[in-house]
Amino acid sequence: MNSTSWDKLIGEYTVFLRLEKSLSENSIEAYINDVKKLDRYLEMTGTLIEPEQVTLIHLKGFIEWINKLGMSPRTQARVISGIKGFYRFLLLEDIIEHDPTALIESPRIGRKLPDVLSVEEIDRLLSAIDLSKPEGQRNKAMLETLYSCGLRVSELIELRITNIFSDLGFLKIIGKGNKERLVPISQKALKEIDLYRQDRRRLPVIHKESENILFLNRRGKKLSRVMIFTIIRELAKKINLKKKISPHTFRHSFATHLIDGGADLRAVQEMLGHESIITTEIYTHLDREYLRDTIIQFHPRS
Fold it and tell me: Which end of the chain has fewer CB within 10 Å, C or N?
């Protein structure tokens, strides 16, 4: 480290990210590592200055350095975003008067559009589940819920029985940063959950810490993320689906089908638990991409 001033301000920034921004520990670690990269670069070049003394010249040198390290444009953009966040915090705390990152541009990156399943492909995946197997009904209820509610995989495996409000047709979801949101759930998904709960009662043992968790493995414990990935990949293989899919594909498909059907963007943002509507807007780009491809393929003048 250049000095204890870097240590002190990084410590304060960590507290800010945890308490004010409610970020996960993984996200906090990524942001802090970005700031530490800048500190390491300055130390390497013999520039022994405090964070508040960093100028645009120093930052341009730093960006050239990370570029020479062979980082992808996406990774570079993330690092620059981390540095910008740190200096916005210093500005907020009146530690600096001017933000040296204000004129820094992130490298241009194409927004990667996720694979989306059609409604027919989702039906085929769900129909491929073998209901004669002990885990069959559980898997059907899980995937129906994943698609019906557009959940993240972490939200699915943490779903609690006491957070299912069947009479109202809602789930209470604890999302990123422990933020709660209410998500509508279809009658079809609720029916599959009810059928699964009959099987769940027949489990030989349910571990105390998992008593309120809805989806359990055969040992009566909470499922892992890897398990959900495996179930989905095996079903895709079974129906010979060529798309590379994951639990997140169901979330992408949920959002895309809603927007294609004319749903309000703000409503979709609320259901997905996106902090920024910019994140939700990716699904309108998917729609535009499809429109462009269709015009190119079918227009007589193309």
Answer: C
